[in-house]
């Protein structure tokens, strides 16, 4: 890139930097995005994006999952894994693995990657300060939590101190029992509770398509009303429904926009936030 091209990029980014400075942006970093590609170190590039966002005055909050990593560990331990309606059936042994992987493996990896560049990340679990308070979703699913309340005091305290919270989605009930919580749902609830400017979901797809087999049918911008129509007619189905529903709930709850991006693309956060065209799907309120 020539010096002049670099200057043009910076000028294009300037109004967005001004617009979002001081605003909270929740980034849900999915386990599939974390797995990355063979072409680059996805986690290192993600960390660069978070540090740059922080440096220009944005207040990022990272919420992460770890489904593929949990699956791998369960397989190593010969623990059978099953799902019901997109949710992992979580018995006591599986819950121990969920905590071990999310709190002991994935969370430290993300924190370390960010801190190598900026020394600003702090890892925590939804159990800490009872940040994610839950009730049991139903007995058949075992230790799967339904979010009852998001307590934001720990997250807000870290943000006030100029730090980046990195939150694993293990919740806790009123008795102190830990539960597995769907990371998409948790991220949306956290964004809503923090009154975030945006919530961004990094996953392993480029965004929403009107035709799943046609890359040219990518939907760049859509309202929650039109999105509901795509659910009703079956365009959006299966595992995407919980993610889309969490987007819609967050936007209805006051988050200005939700974004679905391919986290395997280098610097996808910067491309979506700081360029005119963007690279994924942006979901807005009713129009």
UniProtKB/TrEMBL annotation:
<dbReference type="InterPro" id="IPR001048">
    <property type="entry name" value="Asp/Glu/Uridylate_kinase"/>
</dbReference>
<keyword id="KW-0067">ATP-binding</keyword>
<dbReference type="GO" id="GO:0006526">
    <property type="term" value="P:L-arginine biosynthetic process"/>
</dbReference>
<dbReference type="InterPro" id="IPR037528">
    <property type="entry name" value="ArgB"/>
</dbReference>
<dbReference type="InterPro" id="IPR036393">
    <property type="entry name" value="AceGlu_kinase-like_sf"/>
</dbReference>
<dbReference type="InterPro" id="IPR001057">
    <property type="entry name" value="Glu/AcGlu_kinase"/>
</dbReference>
<keyword id="KW-0547">Nucleotide-binding</keyword>
<dbReference type="Pfam" id="PF00696">
    <property type="entry name" value="AA_kinase"/>
</dbReference>
<feature type="domain" description="Aspartate/glutamate/uridylate kinase">
    <location>
        <begin position="24"/>
        <end position="262"/>
    </location>
</feature>
<dbReference type="GO" id="GO:0005524">
    <property type="term" value="F:ATP binding"/>
</dbReference>
<keyword id="KW-0055">Arginine biosynthesis</keyword>
<dbReference type="InterPro" id="IPR004662">
    <property type="entry name" value="AcgluKinase_fam"/>
</dbReference>
<keyword id="KW-0418">Kinase</keyword>
<dbReference type="GO" id="GO:0003991">
    <property type="term" value="F:acetylglutamate kinase activity"/>
</dbReference>
<protein>
    <recommendedName>
        <fullName>acetylglutamate kinase</fullName>
        <ecNumber>2.7.2.8</ecNumber>
    </recommendedName>
</protein>
<dbReference type="GO" id="GO:0005737">
    <property type="term" value="C:cytoplasm"/>
</dbReference>
<keyword id="KW-0028">Amino-acid biosynthesis</keyword>
<dbReference type="InterPro" id="IPR041727">
    <property type="entry name" value="NAGK-C"/>
</dbReference>
<comment type="pathway">
    <text>Amino-acid biosynthesis; L-arginine biosynthesis; N(2)-acetyl-L-ornithine from L-glutamate: step 2/4.</text>
</comment>
<keyword id="KW-0808">Transferase</keyword>
